[in-house]
Design brief:
The protein is α+β, with helices and mostly antiparallel strands and about 280 residues long. The chain is built from nine helices and 13 strands. It has helices at about 15-20, 25, 30-35, 45-50, 100-105, 120-125, 140-150, 235-240, 265-270; strands at about 5-10, 75, 85-90, 135-140, 155-160, 170, 175-180, 185, 195-200, 205-210, 215-225, 250-255, 255-260. The strands form two sheets. Strands 2, 3, 6, 7, 10, 11 and 12 form a seven-stranded antiparallel beta sheet that branches. The chain has a six-stranded antiparallel beta sheet with strand order 1-5-13-8-9-4, with helices on one face. Strand 8 (about 185) and strand 9 (about 195-200) form a beta hairpin. It starts with a strand and ends in a 7-residue tail after the last helix. InterPro entries: BURP, BURP_dom. Keywords: Signal. It holds the Pfam family BURP.
């Protein structure tokens, strides 16, 4: 299973991408819009779902869909765990109403999230950004691109993880530091493709080559948050036994998440030496 890495250099149509919902963008189908901004660059699978048409009169179908086994990892760990030879158990959320783990936790105080679904407005629009977070609720390919450019500039690349179905045991083969500027876009569990995108201060992204328990080689993305002062207290204490603002914590991104980072050379992007 290969790791998807699309290197994207913006040399044309920067104003088109920034416009997002501009008149120019409105006149282009989403797929043509991507091709105009990034010629000859395939659209990542997770983002391609944004191109699926909706029934007439429907803006967002908020019913959950059957999630992939590798969609929502819920394993948190420490940065020192990211080294070659480390074996990790990566667990995934598989509840019917599952959402990205760090996104939905703020709702647990007001509803039974194991039995009830959420609306896009509840889980994204109404959710206040925590301290150090810049968030955006994306409903189209153009707005995803526009938010990433607004935070990282024009010369960026888009990456996604490839975990192995039915496998939870992984051994780290190497770690590549992708830098401390990143935008994460988490695909939400609705039948309509929508994303919770955010940029979190003092966050470092990593590319992590892995070997699954069945011997399959793959790669995944991890992010480490050095400043956790604004994060959910219940989540950090339950998963890691730490309080916000104390220990830095890390987590993997699942198969339906997208990571945007400043563009690296291909040699650097695929290096597997430890450079943390």
């Amino acid at each position: 299973m290969e790791f998807r890495c699309s290197v994207i250099s913006f040399t044309i149509l920067f104003s088109l991408a920034l416009a997002g919902e501009s008149h120019v963008h409105a006149s282009l189908p989403e797929e043509d819009y991507w091709e105009a901004v990034w010629p000859n660059t395939p659209i990542p699978t997770a983002l391609r779902e944004l191109l699926k048409p909706l029934p007439a009169g429907v803006e967002i179908d908020e019913l959950p869909k059957q999630i992939d086994d590798t969609q929502y990892p819920k394993t948190f760990f420490y940065k020192e765990d990211l080294h070659p030879g480390k074996t990790m158990k990566v667990q995934f959320t598989k509840r019917p109403y599952a959402q990205p783990y760090g996104v939905y936790t703020w709702l647990t105080d007001i509803k039974d999230t194991s039995k009830e679904g959420y609306s896009f407005e509840e889980i994204c629009i109404k959710k206040e950004a925590f301290e150090g977070e810049e968030k955006f609720c994306a409903k189209s390919l153009g707005t995803v691109i526009g938010f990433a450019i607004s935070k990282l500039g024009k010369n960026i690349q888009v990456l996604s993880s490839s975990f192995v179905n039915k496998q939870e045991q992984y051994t780290v083969e190497g770690v590549q530091n992708l830098g401390d500027k990143a935008v994460m876009c988490h695909g939400l569990n609705f039948r309509t493709a929508v994303f919770y995108c955010h940029k979190v201060r003092e966050t470092t992204a990593f590319m992590v080559p892995l070997v699954a328990g069945d011997g399959t080689k793959t790669q995944a993305l991890a992010v480490c948050h050095s400043d956790t002062s604004g994060m959910n207290h219940h989540m950090l204490h339950e998963l890691m036994g730490v309080d916000p603002g104390t220990n830095p914590v890390c987590h993997f991104l699942g198969s339906k998440a997208i990571l945007w980072v400043p563009n690296l050379s291909m040699d650097t992007a695929y290096q597997t030496n430890v450079v943390v």
